[in-house]
């Protein structure tokens, strides 16, 4: 390792001995973790929160640096500016709907009972009386006769379907839907069941469901009434479908833009960190200081912004190093600019999951194995090992 860097490190350790509160700086959390992993006992002052960094190792920013940072911040804020929430417009639909009925459910028969021939005949007689009542517009009376017919023969889908049509005439769509459902449960191919339910759903403004039922009814047993209702229902159903597709597309586009903004923000932050570290390296390369202003890129705080992110593999000198890699710590001939110039690594260092994994490996190199299966972490560790000259 470079002698000047070792001298800087030695001076930093002396400062920490004289004033352990230096270690309370959040950017040195990785260093505290490293010391504790070696069994070191740190004083409580090393863990106190500090809103200001020690002037002994913080590089004062020049006006040019501050201007660059402000420019970066503005750009990031512009990227993060959220679009307005999507507010769906109203759909102009045609056709009249009725208020839903909330009467108690009508009487239903028990389809599991055995129906005798006598009951079948009686059921048909009751149905005939209901048809006659319907022709005379005596709808309540028709409902009574049809209910009697259903109780006598609860296995007849036609009886339920007929009573559903009467409820439609009475503008009771919910009651009609209950009877239509019962008819379809007995006979899934009941055209009258689909027709009645489709008309009832249209009365409630359930246009898409109504269109589906009426199309099925038309396939099973086409008639002009179904066609007439479909002409009123289908335009509304199409408008609703197009409206839904439009706003689904807008929401997806908005989400895609949000993802892209986040990706560009992280890239900008990584680039800004690299530029800052590069400037600090250039400003410190021609100076000989007894403190630690500047440091080496990726070294102690002041070089890489915020300190080494999670600790690079290899640890501090003499710390065992990365398994199979650098037993004596980070080799002195490592070109840290390769790391700072790598956008993928710079972006990865802002990922909490990656940083946690790197810290875990730094504390205990044996933990490397448990991160090899992590698709997010493993490639970053392998890439770093390659740049440090370790095995891939």
UniProtKB/TrEMBL annotation:
GO terms for molecular function: Hsp70 protein binding; protein dimerization activity. InterPro entries: Hip_N (IPR034649), STI1/HOP_DP (IPR041243), STI1_HS-bd (IPR006636), TPR-like_helical_dom_sf (IPR011990), TPR_rpt (IPR019734). Residues 292-326 have a biased composition (Gly residues). Residues 256-326 are annotated as: Disordered. TPR repeats lie at residues 157-190. Keywords: Repeat, TPR repeat. Residues 342-381 form the STI1 domain. It comes from the Eukaryota. SUPFAM superfamilies: TPR-like. SMART domains: STI1 (SM00727), TPR (SM00028). Pfam families: HipN, STI1-HOP_DP, TPR_8. One of its GO terms (cellular component) is histone deacetylase complex. PANTHER family: HSC70-INTERACTING PROTEIN. This is STI1 domain-containing protein. It comes from Ziziphus jujuba var. spinosa.
């Amino acid at each position: 390792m470079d002698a000047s860097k070792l001298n800087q490190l030695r001076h930093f350790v002396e400062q920490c001995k004289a004033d352990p509160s230096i270690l309370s700086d959040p950017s040195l959390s990785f260093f505290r973790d490293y010391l504790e992993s070696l069994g070191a006992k740190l004083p409580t002052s090393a863990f106190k929160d500090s809103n200001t960094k020690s002037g002994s190792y913080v590089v004062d920013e020049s006006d040019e640096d501050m201007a660059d940072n402000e420019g970066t911040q503005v750009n990031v804020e512009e990227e993060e500016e959220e679009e307005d929430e999507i507010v769906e417009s109203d759909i102009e639909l045609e056709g009249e709907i009725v208020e839903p009925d909330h009467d108690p459910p009508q009487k239903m028969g028990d389809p599991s009972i055995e129906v005798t021939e006598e009951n079948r005949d009686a059921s048909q007689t009751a149905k005939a009386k209901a048809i006659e009542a319907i022709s005379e517009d005596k709808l309540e009376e028709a409902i009574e006769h049809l209910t009697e017919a259903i109780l006598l023969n609860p296995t007849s889908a036609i009886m339920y379907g007929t009573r559903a049509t009467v409820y439609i005439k009475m503008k009771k769509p919910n009651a009609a839907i209950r009877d239509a459902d019962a008819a379809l449960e007995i006979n899934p191919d009941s055209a009258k069941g689909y027709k009645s339910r489709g008309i009832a759903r249209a009365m409630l403004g359930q246009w898409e469901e109504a269109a589906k039922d009426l199309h099925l009814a038309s396939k099973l047993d086409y008639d002009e009434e179904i066609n007439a209702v479909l002409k009123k229902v289908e335009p509304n159903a199409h408008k609703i479908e197009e409206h839904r597709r439009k706003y689904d597309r807008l929401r997806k586009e908005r989400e895609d833009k949000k993802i892209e903004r986040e990706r560009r923000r992280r890239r900008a932050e990584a680039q800004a960190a690299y530029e800052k570290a590069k400037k600090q390296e250039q400003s410190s390369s021609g100076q000989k200081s007894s403190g630690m202003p500047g440091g080496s890129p990726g070294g102690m705080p002041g070089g890489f912004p915020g300190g080494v992110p999670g600790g690079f593999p290899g640890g501090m000198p003499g710390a065992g190093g990365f398994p199979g890699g650098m037993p004596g710590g980070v080799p002195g001939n490592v070109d840290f600019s390769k790391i700072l110039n790598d956008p993928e690594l710079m972006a990865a260092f802002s990922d909490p999951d990656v940083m946690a994994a790197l810290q875990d490996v730094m504390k205990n190199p044996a933990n490397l194995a448990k991160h090899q299966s992590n698709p997010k972490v493993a490639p970053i560790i392998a890439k770093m090992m390659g740049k440090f000259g370790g095995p891939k």
